[in-house]
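Example A, followed by Example B.
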Amino acid sequence: MTSEDDTLPAAALGYSIDVNNLLAQRLALKNASNKRMHELRATFGDMPDDIGGSERDDRLVTWEKSLNRPVQRSGHKDRLWAAMQELGQAPPVGDNSHHWRQVKRKGARPLAHGLPDLLEVWDFAQALDKELSCYEPQEEGEIA
């Protein structure tokens, strides 16, 4: 990270996610239920990663339909889609509505996204300059 503005250099953004973005999305999603976040994590775990070429598109469309279920049921649809945009590639390429990142590796271009990373570290993704109570769900929930 640069000391001047605490953001990643442009070249690094292609390979990783700015921690400040990750923490901001954790705070934005604090009211999402643990059950729905677990469903999202499981859905990302089922994402096909061994596909390439034209079959990738077909299998991703099928998988993305399964992603819609926990997002719709969460009660925080708008915030989850905003998190998908913030933790993915901006702007989206083509009809890539979920902002997938193409990770550049020798011989393959696997897809990646920051939301599964956030879900993996959910309980620990808290900014040190904020009180822990800021991350506790509020009584009043957003139904988007």
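Example B, a separate protein, is given below in the same form.
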Amino acid sequence: MTWLIGVNNLRTPRAFTLVELMLSVLILGIGLSAVANSYILALRGANSVRNNISALILAKEKFQGLEMASLKKALSSAPAPETIGSLGKDYSYQQEITEITASADLAEHLVLACLKISWNERNSSKDVTLATYLPKQK
């Protein structure tokens, strides 16, 4: 009877087969490639957000300059486009100041200031346009 128990123990597998190992490596590789792809997409998105934030910070600085110029009564209606370098990227901006036509009450005291900031990102043009009302020169 003891010799049958020994034979039974020889038939139970004690290690992984080569096929099982190859399948587990294949599944692991597919999972890691999906994670790596997600990581690359996240880095691209973070870079795009960083460029947008830089453009908005530049726009805020330009609007503060426009507000100071408005208070000093030195607004020009449409200066030429200019370029600013920030964080290794060139941003071009153009401002436009127009009269308000929708409301006579607003048009009496305010002007509409628009600022468009453009930059190139991965071979495509991106831009941000901001608008605000400024006190009118008297």
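On Example B: Residues 18-71 form the longest helix (54 residues).
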